[in-house]
Amino acid sequence: MTQRHTEACPIAHSLNIIGDRWTLLIVREAFGGISRFSDFHKRTGIAKNLLTDRLALLVQEGVFEKSDIGERGVRYAYHLTESGRALLPVMVALHMWGNENLFGDGEEPVLLVDRTTGEPIQSMAMLTSSGASVLPENIRRRPGPGAPALKTGD
Amino acid sequence: MTQRHTEACPIAHSLNIIGDRWTLLIVREAFGGISRFSDFHKRTGIAKNLLTDRLALLVQEGVFEKSDIGERGVRYAYHLTESGRALLPVMVALHMWGNENLFGDGEEPVLLVDRTTGEPIQSMAMLTSSGASVLPENIRRRPGPGAPALKTGD
Asked: Which of chain B's residues have a Cβ under 8 Å away from the Cβ of A140?
């Protein structure tokens, strides 16, 4: 098994779930409406044993929920939970980075657009609770309320 | 070696570079100002052989640039390129997802804040070229100018 990060960092913990070659492709398909094992397999090309493992972990971690949709006999569907749907900004950010940095302007294989206007998504803004947009160079990491040192009173 | 995605999808191609347990922790440290092999090793806990492999790939793919900073003898520093720094929205999105979905309100080990105001980053907005914010439910995937079918004139 792959080593599990225990470091108190949300990125490290996220990577325990989505930090591999395939998981975000499964999630991509789920955002596109795919819900069945055989369809995830066909559309991503992932090996079946790996898909079984990844879906089990995603269900365990609350990213997908599994339900029996068999009318005669058992057949499962996998749907994104609220936590799974919350991965959308991660997907969009990765999509845009790949287009801009691995394909380049005019070579994008897939675009993300607003279906109401047809306009492509061009950027992402990071906002504070007051709605202010934060410049990349002004972002800093700070210990949060669950930081280990704070929790033990150090 | 891990299988390389060839599918014409920016997410799949991005995963060829950052789709593993460790790479985004190396990138996280680089955003924090770390540039030396020994420091990446110490701060992430990644095995040295894996770190060597990942840094070589990141340099090859244009995410990091490697420079000799040795005064007497060879010593390398690894810095994010413009393409590497463009990973910031991916890092922020993953950080926020982890905090909200794996730790939860009041348990966040690390927060991202605007250093000019101290306010934590709370959300990310997806914007079109006209500056309009796109609702998650309105995002659609569309073939881009580099889509295989379009390129071959089908």
From this structure: 112-115
